[in-house]
Write a structure and sequence with these properties.
CATH topology of the largest domain: Quinone Oxidoreductase, Chain A, domain 1
Bound molecules: NADP nicotinamide-adenine-dinucleotide phosphate
Structural class: alpha/beta
Order of helices and strands: EEEHHEEEEHHEHEHEEHEHEHEHE
Distance between the termini: 12 Å
CATH architecture of the largest domain: Alpha-Beta Complex
Largest sheet: 7 strands, mixed
Length: 320
């Protein structure tokens, strides 16, 4: 089968599309023919190993996962002899950051992994883009214990995480102020934001409103700059470590003060989370934002684009 392979860590150019052996499902696994996947910031992080700490998960000197790709949508081709909940022909989608492998024509995943059947109305491309930004946003929203009626600010509302966060926070009944570039003001409004701040015109850290939760979904701010935006016991979360990993240090120290806090939750995803996101999609409450489409053969171009830090939502790789 065809797969995108990176045998070493490095820039997008280390990825080569080549023929590799088609995987065979184990007794507890499902073999899926991949129709669509994404290139996202998680793939970029694992491919470049830019943060050395990630190598403790992905291989110290060379990548343990030679074919990346964590999001997928496709059709079950075969199931292992112990698999009961899926059968050949099922249309499925989900997330695999345990072994990756979705940048290929076929992937195997354990029956109890983070995947389920596709939302009724979704295309393969749309289904492939539901889980990465969706589960990071959901993890942070849960950590901040977002409640109906709260006032929340999302910076970077046009990323995969930010665009999911705006929609999920609205689903939980809170009021959203979203920060984005001029060209995306209408898009972000259409996601449900109550107030949209164009960061080319206005510095959101100077707002006089007070928020229960400031979520920097692109990691461009700091707790120091956002502190005055928070209510007395408000929460700040950034998707980046911050300068000198400050956000990790602050997550350990600020909870001791009893006041404004930084959290740095480790994102998790389960089958139940994927089903939750699927049900929101079916109910019309969550629609992943899709930017560009690339073919698997052009995946290096896709990586280059994603690494500009300027994609709007998700970048799709069409495989089948
Ligand atoms: N290391 C990992 O494994 C990992 C995994 C996932 C995510 N992350 C981190 O999480 C963050 C978000 O990732 P993502 O995939 O959702 O988004 P992304 O690819 O980083 O998207 C960036 C979006 O943010 C906007 N943006 C850029 N600069 C901005 C600024 N100063 N203020 C407000 N918006 C700005 C961009 O639009 P405009 O420039 O047009 O405004 C673009 O739409 C990234 O920092 C990423 O590194 C890391």
């Amino acid at each position: 089968m065809k797969a995108a392979v990176n045998k070493i860590y490095g820039p997008p150019e280390v990825v080569q599309v080549m023929e590799v052996e088609k995987p065979v499902q184990k007794d507890n696994e499902v073999l899926i023919k991949v129709y669509a996947t994404t290139v996202n910031r998680t793939d970029c992080g694992f491919r470049s190993a830019e943060y050395f700490i990630s190598r403790f998960f992905s291989g110290l000197f060379k990548p343990k996962f030679k074919t990346l790709g964590n999001e997928f949508a496709g059709v079950v081709e075969a199931v292992g002899k112990n698999v009961r909940s899926f059968s050949a022909g099922d249309k499925v989608f989900g997330y695999n950051d345990v072994t990756f492998g979705a940048h290929a024509q076929y992937i195997c995943i354990a029956e109890d992994g983070a995947f389920t059947t596709m939302p009724q109305q979704s295309s393969f491309e749309e289904a492939a883009a539901i889980t990465e930004g969706g589960h990071y946003a959901l993890s942070d929203i849960r950590a901040a214990k977002v409640q109906a009626g709260q006032n929340i600010l999302v910076n970077g509302a046009t990323g995969a995480i930010g665009s999911a966060a705006v929609q999920l926070i609205k689903h939980f009944g809170a009021r959203v102020t979203a920060v984005c570039n001029t060209k995306n003001v209408e898009l972000v409004r259409s996601l449900g934001a109550d107030v949209v701040i164009d960061y080319t015109q206005e510095d959101f850290t100077k707002l006089t409103d007070r928020f229960h939760f400031v979520f920097d979904a692109v990691g461009k701010s700091s707790f120091a700059k956002c502190k005055q935006l928070l209510h007395e016991k408000g929460i700040y979360i950034s998707t980046e470590l911050g300068k000198n990993s400050a956000n990790v240090f602050l997550a350990l120290t600020t909870p001791l003060t009893g006041g404004k806090r930084v959290l740095f939750p480790l994102p998790t995803i389960s089958k139940a989370d994927v089903i939750f996101l699927k049900e929101l999609v079916e109910a019309g409450k969550f629609k992943p934002v899709i930017d560009r489409h690339y073919k698997l053969d052009d995946i290096v171009e896709a990586y280059r684009y994603v690494e500009t830090g300027q994609k709007t939502g998700n970048v799709i790789i069409t495989v089948a």
